[in-house]
Design brief:
The protein is of the alpha+beta class. The protein has two domains: 121 residues, PAS domain (Beta-Lactamase, 2-Layer Sandwich), CATH 3.30.450; 66 residues, PAS domain (Beta-Lactamase, 2-Layer Sandwich), CATH 3.30.450.20. Helix content is 35%, strand content 23%. It has seven helices and seven strands, in the order H-E-E-H-H-H-E-E-E-H-E-E-H-H. The strands form two sheets. A five-stranded antiparallel β-sheet has the order 2-1-5-4-3, with helices on both faces. Strand 4 and strand 5 form a beta hairpin. The protein is elongated. It starts with 13 loop residues before the first helix and ends in a 29-residue tail after the last helix.
């Protein structure tokens, strides 16, 4: 692991220094074996620490990363959103974002990034991880493709009955645009006599194929 990470411990006896060195080696090994990228940022967005996986997946050297910010790892359309989520961490204590991680060779992969506010040497810092969600994203895309290919209208709702996902057949059946449907509760698509009878349940709205 490469890092610029201040230590609050003062040099002591040889035994104390050896203990500190062994503790650091253990921490480095643990962070380097995490399944994703690990990072610590100061309140100016500068990298204070990162794991070896960060260098491996990004293609950048430790020296290059030490001069970079999170904005250098995302595409232009995502920069404003990432900047906002970084600010959110220092304002509220935590934030997450799903954006493409852009490597040095410009290859991209969808990542879920997390950030939590911590105090290091009495200074506010962000500690977080980034996990490659390529497999999950592909599965979600396949699910949506199957949903769209279904001959029936399908509506998926949350526990409160709010509509969270529909297919094109649902738009055709009820005459609403998808954006309008996602603002409704499932009861609004049911005959009035059935509304309110099954709150919190999931429903399947079907129309005869063909």
């Amino acid at each position: 692991m490469t890092a610029r990470f201040p230590s609050s411990k003062s040099p002591g006896t040889a035994a104390e220094e050896d203990a500190i060195r062994r503790e650091k080696n253990f921490t480095d090994a643990a962070l380097d074996n995490l399944p994703g990228v690990f990072y610590v940022l100061d309140d100016q967005g500068r990298f204070l620490r990162w794991n070896k996986h960060m260098e491996t997946v990004s293609g950048y050297s430790s020296e290059e990363i030490s001069r970079m910010t999170p904005m250098d790892f995302v595409a232009e359309p995502d920069k404003a959103r990432v900047a906002e989520e970084l600010r959110r961490v220092f304002l509220t204590g935590e934030a997450t974002a799903e954006v493409d991680f852009v490597a040095k060779d410009q290859t991209r992969a969808p990542y879920l990034f997390t950030g939590n506010l911590v105090q290091l040497d009495r200074k506010p810092c962000l500690i977080g991880m980034g996990i490659d969600i390529t497999t999950r994203t592909r599965a979600e895309r396949k699910f949506r493709d199957l949903l769209e290919a279904a001959p029936d209208a399908i509506v998926i709702v949350d526990k409160a009955g709010g509509i969270v996902l529909v297919n094109s057949q649902t738009e055709a059946l009820f005459g609403f645009k998808r954006t309008e449907l996602l603002e409704l509760r499932i009861e609004m698509l049911l005959p009035e006599r059935y509304r309110g009878e099954h709150p919190g349940n999931q429903y399947l709205a079907s129309s005869p194929a063909g």
